[in-house]
Amino acid sequence: MLDTERLCPGCMNDMGGERVCPVCGYDLSRRNGEDCLPAGQIIADRYTVGEAKKRNGEGITYIGWDNSADSVVTVREYFPHGFAVRNPDKTVGMVKGGEYTFNEGLMEFLDVNRQIKASELPSLIPVIDVFEENGTVYSVSQSISSIPLSSFLKKNGGVLKWEQARPLFLPLIDTVKGMNDLGIIHGGISTETVIVGRDGKLRITGYGIKKLRYADNEIKCELFPGFAAIEQYDTNNLHIDSYTDVYALCAVLFTVLIGSVPAAAPERLENDSMTVPAKFAEELPRHVLAALANGLQVLPENRTPDMEAFKNELVYAETSFVPAKKSSAKAEPVSEKPQKSGGTAKYVVISSACTAAVFVAIVAVLIFTVFREDFFGGESSNLSSESSVSAPSVDAIGTIDSGAEESAVLFNVPQLTGKYYSEIIENEDYEMFDFVIKGKEYSDKFQRGQICAQSVSEGTGVVRDTKIEVTISLGSKEIKIANVLGLDETNAKLELLKQGFLYDNIEVLEKYDEDHEPGTVLEQEPAYGTQVSTDTAVTIYINSYEGNTDSSSSETGTDVN
Questions:
Q1: Which of 45, 224, 286, 294 is the most buried (most CB within 10 A)?
Q2: What three-state secondary structure class fits 302?
Q3: % helix, strand, coil for the chain, step of 5
Q4: CB 109 within 8 Å of CB 137
Q5: Which residues pair with 467 in a beta bridge?
Q6: pLDDT tens-digit profile of 105-118?
Q7: What residue segments make up the domains of the chain, in order of their start?
Q8: Residues 74, 86: contact at Cβ < 8 Å?
């Protein structure tokens, strides 16, 4: 066991007997605030408390030392601002009249941290210990060398490409979904509470009590403008739920991919004019832009409802959520980016070059025609409300049979096989049915993405909202791989995606050849015409030769024909 008296309260490194830490510059004359625990105090007979690093409405965060494991830890003390006082013996007392608020938050603090301690979710910092002492509650977690995502972006050009962000964010999405499934809403996801570890992984911090994330309550809130959803500012009329974390995580991803933080939700409610620069609109996959637009809808009823739906749309381009219908919908201007009807997030995409505009248009056409079969999944939402039917007038009402059942109006089930899932959920003629995707399977008869089976046969009479399970075709299990030689990288990928190959299974490598066009595919594996499964990994070799360049033209920045 190390001699903790030699440890720096500011960084927990050995000070070597010096008054000022040679590592972090902490001066031993420095003291924690009067309402904080003093540096050096032992809690739970195990942890040495160091410098108080952060304060918010929920409590105080200290750096600490685990005397049993000889490791640096983070200690969080429940000390709600305005409802707790530090007694002379360093215990915590409750402000008179605030006992209920104090105890309510204490129980929630206990529950959240115990849930994290019991969890094995990938992007949570593990909680080592949760215990009651000094009249309050403490949580102790591992200390991970990291920086906030905001600082990471500043040091790395301000933005990441989708190919870089995708593997970073998938574990984060799964983690937030796991916590939401436990009934825990973060409410404070931002580029400050998402951190980047030295190992390159993203982790989420800052889980706390609900009142910390409400603007209109008695505890001092901690909201992050641009990332906090509108329901966190107006809790009298709106309800906080999993879609609140969807909004925040979308705002974080928007910041990472676009390089700017969205305007604060109250401002967007008054004047929503979010834009995506043409450069990013050209580079980002259309389904990523669509997922961000849907997740950043200002009003909750128009927003992607939960993390699972967001992930399906973001990663697999599967959209199952349909926003609530409005009784008097105002026509929205047509934009380059797909949007949810009735939404308030308007993405204006302005292309600065004709070639870029043509590319975006081609991709849009492909996605909503050739590729639409890949863009399905999840459970459908019920699109309709009950229609009212007027009963015929009669002169007299006879006796009532109390045991009689109401006769139900029946609807004939349509033929669904051969149709695409998006066609049926967007068709108002089918709003009386509840469609659910049962699964996906290979089919030689139906193209990839088409419905190949339905649980209720065509023509069967069913009552409103009957659940009908559909199976989506994955297409033929084996196909002849297309010839992509000579195509540029973008068109080669599009051709392979069109055949049903998975985006993640398409690997791009470089090869140098002065005898062929720069930037085109020189080789492909498997070779053209090979009979393969669509799950097969495909490698394309792009010519890294850049061609001859003219120095004078290079200086002026013009391209050489």
A1: 294
A2: helix
A3: 30, 20, 50
A4: yes
A5: 434
A6: 999 999 999 999 99
A7: 30-142, 146-324+335-370, 411-473, 478-543
A8: no
